[in-house]
Design a protein that fits this description.
By secondary structure, the chain is of the alpha/beta class. It has a domain of 216 residues: Alpha/Beta hydrolase fold, catalytic domain (Rossmann fold, 3-Layer(aba) Sandwich), CATH 3.40.50.1820. It has a seven-stranded mixed beta sheet with strand order 1-3-2-4-5-6-7, with helices on both faces. Strand 4, helix 5 and strand 5 form a beta-alpha-beta unit. The radius of gyration is 22 Å and the shape is globular. The protein starts with 7 loop residues before the first helix and ends with a helix.
């Protein structure tokens, strides 16, 4: 278009706005997902594994708990690890790379969902080598997605998914959260980008707990919060989050909280439908079911279900394969 044309200036301004907006979006993406430094591939990181053993003989199958985002294995050790051990299980909780006391903190911003699945596979192999048995898996939130990815390719005796993101991913959840609660959505972005020091106590309550838990208890749990991979949010919004299964589907229990603001009841139902099961909801719980005042009911429901399902499995998987 010649400069003498009346629309030339308007088109030029539109072009400049387009370039500016494109540069802004690109800058945000570069900020949220920085390019990892070039380096020689490193060995698998050493992972923290917290274990609690029963006082008497252990049940045939051990349990392995997988935490969600922004925390580590200590999250499970407040209540459920000891509770499972008292129930007769050898109970273990892993901190994925860069979490808790595991190695890999410096590379955490670039950790992928596949990296976390590799961490789970490494830990399962470690438990199998120690006791000759494949553990049943319990995953919370993001940990539930890690478990779902793993069980699509590996035999597992039983799986419990607690407030787990659905197999369809978190894109719908993220949009819904932004529309329902812009403040909470902004606070979660701040936590993802800047760490736990940038999120308010009221946002933590709104995201994770009901009003039945005191501010003092929430303050007690704040040390569990930590930075999270900046890549993982994008991984969990991608289509094809869970690959087609190449092994038989294990027995699955899907649990959710009726007051969950992050993984809403309809998303829990989506997960349950994907696996052909009926979800179990706890009316007085939010997203963090395992630290809520109702944690014991949640734990007992999971453990009683595992008792029944694992009793029907017969010989432990790893032992049967030998």
């Amino acid at each position: 278009m010649p400069r003498s044309h009346p629309g030339w200036r308007q088109n030029r301004n539109r072009h400049h706005r387009f370039v500016l907006h494109g540069a802004t979006v690109a800058s945000i993406i570069r900020f949220l997902c920085p390019t990892p430094p070039s380096k020689v591939p490193s060995p698998m990181p050493k992972l923290e594994l917290i274990s609690r053993q029963p006082a008497g003989p252990a049940r045939p199958f051990p349990l392995l708990f997988v935490h969600g985002a922004f925390c580590g294995a200590a999250f499970w050790d407040v209540h459920l690890l000891g509770h499972a051990a008292a129930h007769g299980y050898a109970a273990h909780a892993v901190s994925l790379r860069g979490h808790g006391a595991s190695e890999g903190r410096s590379a955490l911003p670039w950790a992928s969902l596949s990296d976390y699945v590799d961490d789970l596979a490494q830990t399962v192999a470690q438990i199998e080598a120690a006791c000759g048995q494949t553990p049943a898996l319990i995953g919370h939130s993001m940990g539930g997605v890690v478990v779902q990815r793993y069980m699509a390719r590996n035999p597992v005796p039983a799986v419990v998914l607690m407030a787990s993101a659905p197999p369809t991913g978190l894109a719908e959840s993220s949009i819904g959260l932004a529309l329902r609660s812009p403040f909470l959505f902004q606070q979660m972005l701040a936590l993802q980008t800047f760490g736990s020091g940038m999120i308010s106590l009221s946002a933590i309550r709104q995201a994770l707990f009901t009003n039945q838990i005191s501010d003092a208890e929430i303050q007690r749990y704040l040390p569990f919060l930590q930075a999270e991979s900046q890549r993982i949010a994008f991984d969990m919004m991608a289509p094809g989050l869970i690959p087609s299964a190449t092994v038989a589907q294990p027995p699955i229990l899907v649990i959710g909280g009726r007051h969950d603001a992050l993984v809403t009841p309809d998303q829990v139902e989506t997960t349950a439908r994907a696996y052909g099961v009926t979800p179990v909801f706890f009316p007085d719980c939010a997203h963090n079911l395992v630290l809520e005042n109702g944690w014991r009911a949640v734990g007992d429901t999971a453990l009683d279900w595992l008792d029944t399902e694992l009793a029907q499995r017969g010989e432990p998987l790893a032992a049967a394969a030998q």
